[in-house]
Amino acid sequence: MEFSIKSGSPEKQRTGCVVVGVFEGRKLSASARDIDRAAKGFLSDVLRRGDHDGKAGTTVLLHCVTGLPSDRVLLVGLGKEREMGESAYRRAIDTAIKALRATGATDATFYLTDLGLRKRDTAFKVEQAVLGIMEGVYRFDRMKSKPAETKRALRKVTLHVARRGDIAEGEAAAARAMAIAEGVRLARDLGNLPANVCTPAYLAGEAESLAKHHGLHCEVLGEKELEKLGMGAFLAVARGSRQPPRLIVLEHRGARKKDEAPVVLVGKGVTFDTGGISLKPAAEMDEMKFDMCGAASVLGTMKAVALMKLPLNVVGVVPATENMPGGNAVKPGDIVTTMSGQTVEILNTDAEGRLILCDALTWAERYKPAAVVDIATLTGAMVIALGHVATGLFANTDSLARELVQAGEASWDRAWHLPLWDDYQEALKSNFADIPNIGSRAGGAITAACFLERFAKSYPWAHLDIAGTAWKSGTEKGATGRPVALLANFLTRRSA
Ligand code: BES
Ligand code: MN
Ligand code: ZN
Q1: Which residue segment(s) compose the domain that 464 sits in?
Q2: Strands 263-267 and 313-323, sheet pairing
């Protein structure tokens, strides 16, 4: 997809489709009014006839409007003008691109980027438009025997900004957003791939090819090396699987000062989570192929960071394994020694994410990191607590939590800060080992974070539980690519 930024009068645009907004109550937006004037009131006529009332999520497509040099005009409902906020804006973009895809237009000009949004600048609107459009045109048909669509595809989008002076800002935002969109797409592709294709070795190969094509450094550790390092918890999870585990390390060395302390991203890479001997019920178990979405978001973010050439050192660490039952699998009650030396009683083999992450967190110490952020589809309890809107955020350092919350707000890929008070640590008591791998059912997402905290003592650390936000279920089943946008924004701010 090619994006360009323009200002100037909409009625003169020669384009496959003009996309304009209409507020609820049949009120034309400013650009729509310009077009209406050029078309001698045709748009107003359409509204008056009752064909469009501006309700959010609705569209009307007009062809061959006299007085306009464009082939089509797409009216997009914006909802109530007073309620025009970030979510309504994103919804308008999503609605528009969905309708646009159904047309034969190969290029289009969006007049949504010039809408007024309280406290949001042109950069935000352009960035969200690019991300929304790229999300909307995304299809995952790699596993179909033949591609589903034969229609001409949208290839060029022009985003209209209100003033000439906004063009430079818009262009910079579009370039940044394209890099992030590339990262999001990679994360979605990896998440959507079935577990018989996307194995730990496949993820490692993906990291190696990222390194090769984008100037990153890659290192992949196998079973023997993990044993030598003493990663007893990670290896315990991998025991039941025929697919050997991998520890994947990707480095972006972009800082002006070469030895600057890096930010380390650690992504849960369980390529399939059956639960192990504590086997999961059959219903929706297919969705556990998404249990590597944390890993996918790390690889996606590394790609975005490389494309943006951020002047920052960033390390991506991915422990990758399947969680399977079997004759060799780890059993409830087994006790393992982690790389940190702490022993863990594995009371439930389905709480495997924290077991692979704890050793990866200890591994991260060798980088003397400025900060470590882990990203994991860690708990079902997180989905119950925050649903599918906000990612759960925990941290041992409040300033790091604040940075991530702000990055989430700025990129509209939001996270919500939850407590990690010592009181919750009470739930982690074992009669036989230093700690168990599960706490109480109550506050399950918090006690999981408490477990990780014990392995993150030597640096500022945050944990993002993306169990509710990494993928969608139902008819729109598929990976979302979250929280690549949040992470890319966080790292961009850190590099500034
Ligand atoms: N990958 C799951 C978490 C999960 C479950 C994410 C459902 C999204 C939807 C994780 O490995 C897991 O199984 N967690 C258990 C922990 C429990 C055994 C303490 C859970 O949440 O049920
Ligand atoms: Mn599990
Ligand atoms: Zn899991």
Answers
A1: 180-495
A2: parallel
Average pLDDT for 144-159: 87
What SS3 state is found at 461? strand
Same domain, 121 and 199: no
* Residue with CA closest to ligand 1 atom 5: 380
Residues 279-302 as b/e (b if ≥16 CB within 10 A, e otherwise) read eeeeeeeeebbbbbbbbbbbbbbb
Do 27 and 155 lie in one domain? The reply is yes
pLDDT beyond 70 at 400: yes
Question: Each residue of 82-118: pLDDT tens digit?
Answer: 999 999 999 999 999 999 999 999 999 999 998 999 9
Does the active-site annotation cover 280?
yes
Query: Is 354 noted as a catalytic residue in this protein?
Result: yes
Per the CB < 8 A criterion, the answer to whether 166 and 115 are in contact is no
**Model pLDDT for residues 334-384, shown as the tens digit of each residue:** 999 999 999 999 999 999 999 999 999 999 999 999 999 999 999 999 999
- Which mutation among 274, 290, 322, 350 tests ligand 1's pocket best, with the greatest number of atoms within 8 A of CB? 350
Q: Residue 165 carries which side chain, given as an amino acid letter?
A: G
- Length of the chain in residues, anyone? 496
For the Cβ of 383 lying below 6 angstroms from any atom of ligand 1, the answer is yes
Supply the CATH number for residue 102's domain: 3.40.220.10
What pLDDT band is residue 152 in, cutting at 50, 70 and 90?
confident
